[in-house]
Amino acid sequence: MNKNKVALSQKIAFGIGMLANQMFPAALQIFMMVLVKGLGFPPLLWGIIFFAPRIFDAFTDPIMGFISDNTRSKWGRRRHYVFAGGLIMGIAFIAMWQLYPENGLLYNFTYFMVLSFIFYLGLTIFSVPYVAMGYEMSDDFHERTSIMAVAQMIGQWAWVIVPWFWIILYDPEMFESVPAATRKLSYYVAAFCTVLALVPALFIKSESTLDRVDFTPINKNNISNSLKKILVSFKEAFRIPQFKILCTATFLIYNSFMTISAFSFFIIVSYMFNGDAGAAGIWPTLHGSIGALVTTFLVIPVIDAISKKMGKKKTFMLSQGISIIGYILFWFLFIPGKPYMFLIALPFFSFGIGGLFTLMMSMTADVIDLDELNTGQRREGIFGAIYWWMVKFGFAIAGLLSGLFMAWVGYTPDAPTQPDGAITGMRLFYTFFPILGTLAAMLVMRSYDVTEEKANEIRRQLEENKKK
């Protein structure tokens, strides 16, 4: 079946799932501050908690991708996994935040670590088949970008909403303490996100795969063979130069961005407001929320439009170049006494992540066509899993690096005053670390060669092969 134009309702259903896919991790990132500021976790333990569950998540993703690709079901390959994963995530998210300071550091560390593994297992079961759904929705070069643009526009609302959690968590009239606020708020976040996660499972169309005979059976008798095929699929994906380029570039940009993302709160409070979180008011919130609004209403529509004119690769280069300007501006526009000035940098800064996933997810779908031409197999699940494996591995490394960087420069989040050079060190990392990552990614992307003409030729050959 030739799939070109996709109904807006289907794009929106996919996009609502993207909001859940981004809202859970976004809320997790904010709530993680509780471990530092509310429960006394030192930076090293904070880094370990960021790192270990995400590594587990990254290694389960390819397994889930293989299972999803080879599932025979009247519901298709993906929908029931998306449904089950959404429920697991919601329940585990509530449970993991039931932390009490009086239980002690060791207990809270162990409890949170165990529940984190369950949460990330649910995230894998949900996100890998969910992302594969998006790759399957269209065969058209530009329609794929449109699908991902709509999804990212909806998903970006996570980053509009979640920064306001800072205001709620630290409101003494609403909650007696930050840990108490987190325990309560987790119920509302989990309920909202779980409903969002179920939408694509319920409303995105899929065809029965019960009659398919080209799948690898998944059962206990075939488990060793299946694991071997997962490893082979992983190796085959990384043998495709274009896919390796996409994964590497994404890792470099996302890792460098996420490493310093939490620093904006600390820089605004410690540098611009002399360590007074009350005086900082809503400015840390506005940094994230306005940046996400700019991404939603300016960056993503511009990326979608420019991509149709310039192509995906050139648009990627342009968007990342603009983001570097934003990082440079932050060095000059984080000004004590003039917090409104950093708002000028946000439109430039937002082109980085806003352009990244809109284009990279679309380009991954093009590479999946190339893989099908080479192997005869359609493996959206395994390719999506491997691509997001790189994203999550980057996120895991970023969490560890954040803690290490803070420890290295001597920054202590709870301290009323900071040692000489600590805040300057944070600002240096905030500006120059993502610039280096972005430049490296742009260098890697120079050799990416799947143009619109090449992608259309691949599709033509695939259609001819199906007729034989």
Describe the 3D structure.
The protein has helices at about 10-35, 45-70, 80-95, 105-135, 140-155, 155-160, 165-170, 180-205, 225-240, 240-260, 265-270, 275-280, 285-310, 310-335, 345-350, 350-375, 380-410, 420-445, 450-465. The protein has 19 helices and no strands. It is mostly helical and about 475 residues long. The chain is globular, with a radius of gyration of 22 Å. Helix content is about 75%, strand content about 0%. The two termini are about 15 Å apart.
Rg value = 22 Å
Q: What's the total count of β strands?
A: 0
Structural class of the secondary structure composition?
Answer: mainly alpha
Number of helices: 19
| Uncertain stretches of 5 or more adjacent residues | none
Which H/E pattern describes the elements? HHHHHHHHHHHHHHHHHHH
Reported for the largest beta sheet, the result is: none
Percent of residues in helical segments?
over 70%
Beta-strand residue fraction: under 5%
The outline comes out as: globular
Spatial gap, N to C terminus: 15 Å
Give the oligomer, counting copies of the same chain as homo and different chains as hetero: single chain
| Rounded mean pLDDT score | 88
Compact description:
This protein is mainly α and 468 residues long. It has helices at 8-37, 43-69, 79-96, 105-136, 141-155, 157-161, 165-169, 178-203, 223-239, 241-261, 263-272, 277-280, 283-310, 312-333, 346-349, 351-375, 380-409, 422-445, 452-467.
